[in-house]
Amino acid sequence: MRELYRSELQEIVNDLVVMSDSVQIAVRDATTALLDVNLSVAERVISSDVRIDQVHDHVEYQAFSLMATQGPVAGELRTLVASIQMVAELGRMGDLAAHVAKIARLRYPNRAVPDGLVENFRNMSSIAQDMVGIAGRVLAERDADEAEKLVTEDDQMDKLRSDQFRMMVGNDWPYSVEEAVDVALLGRYYERIADHAVAIGKRTIYIITGEMPEGEDWPTT
Amino acid sequence: MRELYRSELQEIVNDLVVMSDSVQIAVRDATTALLDVNLSVAERVISSDVRIDQVHDHVEYQAFSLMATQGPVAGELRTLVASIQMVAELGRMGDLAAHVAKIARLRYPNRAVPDGLVENFRNMSSIAQDMVGIAGRVLAERDADEAEKLVTEDDQMDKLRSDQFRMMVGNDWPYSVEEAVDVALLGRYYERIADHAVAIGKRTIYIITGEMPEGEDWPTT
After folding, report:
1. Do the Cβ atoms of B74 and A68 come within 8 Å?
2. Does the CB of A168 have a partner CB in chain B at under 8 Å?
């Protein structure tokens, strides 16, 4: 029985890692839909989010069941509680990728992102995908050092978002109001995906060390 | 010992209710800062968010401690797990109110919201405050019927957000690009506060009945 329990606990962590892979693919594909103006890819991201939500519900249920039946102690309880919190972050990241795909679909056959910001969004997406990948590896390998990389990447994400705002203030925005609104919301979605990746990194450090990383190095999410 | 445990469990729910009161005040004050262009109120909301985050950490810690020491069963475990999830929602709602206050501060002494949208944001804020209040009462009184009201209010919030978008598409937006960007993000923040209130309502129904409310009546959050 004890062995079954251990393998069920590991199964939950594995499911979180698989979920992070799905989120990474969703971010990649949502960006393809957005920047390459691809409607069928947009539809695929939106329908895949239903699957991510199903995994979310499954993991949440499994973690709760183990708590209810196994009387987990210290490190195991910490893992289970953190899993319930991390599965919420991953579910939310999937929703945000779907939001990006929905804007791509809404503007089709036009591209929501104007020419001058395509590069900016490609970079945002690349950093977001990196961060989801790091979060997944941190989880899979219980590697607190790897988690530190999230801090640097998050700084780059913030810089890209600031670049967007700099273009939109003042009077020299060469595109439409509608495009500005899309850029503002899309930028927000990518930034939030990055925030959730940081939160997963922090929670994994908490699982490993029993302490949440604090201080100005670690951004609040 | 058992009696102490029961009172500690009740204390956690009480803290969540107090936190929902703080969030409701933060939303009210952030809107005052935004629409009445009041810098000192904006500063107050931003610094109060630190206090909300402290309550968040305290409740999360207390719920975890009870799980670790008391071996909670069925309904109690459900309450503790849901408390950890709901405290995250409330913490996030406080952050969103602080985001509104930060935009008010950034644009001071100008008003971020242009004349034609002041009424719209007053209505958004009023609905958001109502919804936080309902979520708090649902929690305090374990009243699943009261939670149903959140669905209707959330529909009204969505309608107000659609009204904003209708004004910003096409070519007749009479204000600046910067104002459009502010409206888009501010609208998003109020809408997210409403979403979190709905999530709290759903989780409270789960505590009471053991089932999450599903179906198209209940918006996904």
Report:
1. yes
2. yes
pTM for this predicted structure: 0.96
Q: Is A17 on the interface with B (CB under 8 A)?
A: no
Place of tokens 């959330």: B154
Residues 190-219 of chain A with CB under 8 A from chain B are none
- What is Dmax (Cα atoms) for chain B? 68
CB burial class (10 A; 0-12, 13-18, 19+) of residue A190?
buried
Q: How far apart are CA A21 and CA A10, in angstroms?
A: 17
Token representation of residue A37: 């103006």
Chain B residues whose beta carbon lies within 8 Å of the beta carbon of residue A168 = 177-178, 181
- The model's pLDDT over B150-201, given as tens digits with 9 standing for 90+, comes to 999 999 999 999 999 999 987 789 999 999 999 999 999 999 999 999 999 9
For chain A, list the domains and their CATH numbers.
1-209 (1.20.58.220)
Chain A to chain B Cβ contacts (< 8 Å): 64
B108: Cα separation from own chain's centroid = 25
Cβ atoms of B82 and B53 closer than 8 Å: no
CB contact (8 A) between residue A185 and residue B188: yes
Contact B168 A188 (CB under 8 A): no
Helix extents (H) in A142-176: 144-168
| Mean pLDDT, chain A, integer | 94
A170 φ/ψ sector (left φ>0, alpha ψ -120 to 50, else beta)? left
- Compute and round to an integer the Cα radius of gyration of chain A: 19
Q: Rounded to whole angstroms, how far apart are CA atoms B13 and B3?
A: 16
Non-local CB neighbours of A145 within 8 Å, separated by 6+ positions: none
pLDDT digits (tens, 9 = 90+) for B73-88: 888 999 999 999 999 9
Six token digits for residue A213: 């990383």
Give me the torsion for CA of B195, B198, B204, B208, rounded to 10°: -140
- Burial (CB count <10 Å: 0-12, 13-18, 19+), residue B98: buried
Rounded Cα distance between B27 and B52, Å, is 13
Chain A closest-CA separation from residue B178 CA (Å):
5
Residues 52 through 91 of chain A touching chain B, CB cutoff 8 Å: 64, 67-68, 71, 73-74, 77-78, 81, 84-85, 88
B178, A188: Cβ pair inside 8 Å? no
Contact A73 B68 (CB under 8 A): yes
